[in-house]
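Message: Just now I want nothing more than another pair of eyes on a protein record. I am handing you a single protein, as its sequence and its fold in token form. As I understand it, each token names a local backbone shape. Take your time, and here it is.
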Amino acid sequence: MSEIFLDTETTGLSFSEGHKIVEIACIETVDLIPTNKIFHKIINPKRDVPKKAFDIHGFSTEYLSNKKETFESIADELIEFISGKNIIIHNANFDLGFLNGELGILKKKLIEKKNIIDSLEIARNKFPGSSNSLDALCRRFNIDLSKRTKHNALLDCELLREVYINLLDAKEPKFNLDSITRNTDTINSKVKMYCKKVINPSQLELKEHKNFLRSEIKKNYF
């Protein structure tokens, strides 16, 4: 099963108040294992970035106004990347409000909620009454936050993947032992591949070892 971990950064808290997306990141996984397929865009919102938003993600009005890509120019690529996959978002209502707001203006097909898994809802059910922000969950699960000096959509997708694995009480995927054939000759060949070469001692080394043992016995017991 393919999944998409998705995150956005914006100019503010509400699309209906005229705020826009400035960054979108998606990481594709299969059974939670990264496929190395990534969708990441920094977008010109065609409006100013309030100081509060700048303090969160660090994208200034000047920096974004020089970007050529707008949401309209990347919308089809985004739709193709996420199509037919489960989409995992932390606090999905926020991101969907912006994504579907932008898609609606362009008269594109909206992202359906049936394809969304909200990790915030899972966390609230699992840890009721606790803080369940992405930062709080990373600290709960001892996930390294040292690189998160600012909110960054691509980094947050990877942190979300680690959080989601922990929320499901899953494990990071390991080597599948069941994939090894039961054929005895094949197993023996695999074992030999990983065995270190055994080097037998020379006659001189055996003699010196025997003399060493004799001297140790005399020293300790006579």
Q: What stands out?
A: Residues 179-221 form one domain. DSSP finds nine helices and five strands in the chain.
